[in-house]
Design goal:
Blueprint: H1 14-19, E1 43-47, H2 52-64, E2 69-74, H3 77-87, E3 91-95, H4 101-108, E4 113-116, H5 128-136, E5 139-142, H6 147-154, H7 157-162, E6 166-168, H8 177-191, E7 197-207, H9 214-223, E8 228-232, E9 235-239, E10 246-249, E11 256-261, H10 265-274, E12 278-286, H11 288-300, H12 303-306, H13 309-330, E13 334-342, E14 347-354, H14 357-373, E15 380-382, H15 392-402, E16 406-413
Parallel strand pairs: 1-2, 1-4, 2-3, 4-5, 5-6, 6-15, 7-12
Antiparallel strand pairs: 7-13, 8-9, 10-11, 11-12, 13-14, 14-16
Length: 431
């Protein structure tokens, strides 16, 4: 475990919390950062850089570090030219097919970090980008939100170590920033001798599709075809997707929202790495009828249909125009709430809320890229909550960067201090 150079208990100061509150005009701005001398002229390749998530990551990287060389990669030269024009003179476009290993390896030859944002990751059979990164000795980050893919990436651990390559899987906003928030809540609890962390709940809310387009829509539909894995008192349990509804209070600007069980990789990684015996993850959206629609899909459509990427893609094409129309009304607010309960009965909460998912996911992913460039990550393939992935002393800096533009960011507070209508949320459901 990496040595600690910050206090064991990290509580953001009042000034820090206030600094997270941005006006609408300032919400997409970020504070520029200084990189170590040896990485000042680094280059980052963003796969899927012409899409919503990858493009947002490229913009955030350019804002954080204007002299960083950012290469956006995709299949469309026209979209690439538009993105390069938006980013400015220190960027370029590379036409890359991630299904072609030779194309991948050629693109990675002269870059320091590759960001894999070319989802969806569900149903992908290989970790081709990570394999190419290991072969070309290129640091790697992905924004994977699929359990099978994430642990397949983790299985390349020994190869990454042998090649001296640093890699982080699930390094976006959720999973990603949420993993680091959970790790800090657990660490603070253990440092205060609150006995043992017993229950960890990941709760997520996004208005509409979050403005992130067809890829997020496809991801949502594909997750409905996956049986949910959660942990109860150390035992793995399997549950129906989009079941187990809870009404969760996400605090100011979001309020109470219904959230439902989904199969997300941070559940297993947090259980195994942080040692919390009961872990679950839930997600909800708005308007409310989207949740009803998701529930109906799990009941009416066969699992085989929802696990077929080609069929789901046709479904996305059908729904996408309507989703975009509703997004214009619903907005794209996003919120993360992490709840940790300990054996002494005390609970702590972390909340991360932003006006725009498409902006905050890029800022969050860029924060992971900067951590890798600054030398936070050891050789190997790591989840964000592992100290070899994001060193303990680097977590505070990562969260500060990722939370720029948020209108509500708090860590390690009792629930009553962050809820709009403070009261016990115990509803008889213990996952």
């Amino acid at each position: 475990m990496a040595p600690t150079s910050v206090p064991l208990k990290w509580l953001p100061t009042t000034a820090f919390i206030r600094s997270r509150v941005k006006s609408q005009q300032q919400i997409s701005t970020v504070e520029q950062v200084q990189l170590p001398e040896k990485t000042r002229n680094s280059s980052v390749l963003v796969l899927g850089g012409t899409g919503r998530v990858g493009g947002s990551t490229a913009v955030a990287l350019s804002n954080f570090r204007p002299d960083l060389r950012v290469i956006v990669a995709g299949r469309s030269r026209e979209k690439g030219a538009t993105m390069v024009k938006k980013l400015g003179g220190n960027s370029s476009f590379a036409q890359v097919d991630i299904d072609d290993m030779k194309s991948l390896e050629t693109a990675l030859e002269d870059v320091d970090v590759v960001v894999h944002a070319a989802g969806p990751f569900q149903q992908a059979k290989k970790c081709s980008v990570l394999e190419a990164a290991i072969k070309t000795k290129t640091a790697y980050i992905d924004v994977c939100d699929d359990t099978s893919y994430a642990f397949r990436a983790k299985s390349l651990q020994s190869k990454a170590v042998a090649a001296n390559v640093s890699a982080i899987t699930t390094g976006g906003i959720y999973p990603g920033v949420s993993n680091v928030m959970a790790a800090e809540l657990v660490r603070a609890a253990e440092s205060e001798n609150r006995k043992k962390p017993e229950r960890l709940r990941f709760n997520y809310y996004t208005a509409g599709s979050g403005g992130a387009g067809p890829t997020i829509l496809a991801t949502s539909f594909l997750l409905l075809g996956e049986e949910v894995v959660a942990y109860s008192k150390g035992e793995k349990v399997k549950l129906k997707p989009y079941s187990g509804m809870l009404n969760v209070d996400f605090g100011k600007g979001i309020g109470k929202r219904d959230v439902y069980l989904l199969n997300l990789p941070e559940v297993r990684s947090a259980h195994e790495i942080l040692g919390v015996p009961t872990v679950s993850a839930r997600f909800g959206t708005a308007p409310f009828f989207w949740n009803w629609g998701m529930e109906a899909m799990t009941r009416l459509l066969p699992e085989e249909f929802l696990r077929d990427r080609s069929k789901v893609q046709r479904l996305v094409e059908l729904f996408d125009p309507f989703v975009r129309a509703v997004d214009g009304i619903a907005g794209e607010r996003v919120s993360i709430r992490i709840d940790l309960e300990c054996s002494d009965g005390r609970s702590t909460v972390g909340i991360f809320s932003h006006k725009s998912l498409s902006v905050s996911v890029g800022t969050s992913t860029a924060a992971f890229v900067l951590a890798v460039l600054e030398g936070s990550t050891q050789p190997g393939v790591w989840f964000p909550e592992e100290p070899e992935g994001i060193a303990i002393e680097a977590r505070e800096n990562l969260l500060k960067r990722a939370s720029q533009g948020t209108f509500n960011f708090v860590m390690n507070k009792p629930p009553w201090m962050v809820e709009t209508d403070p009261k016990e949320l115990g509803l008889g459901i213990y996952l």
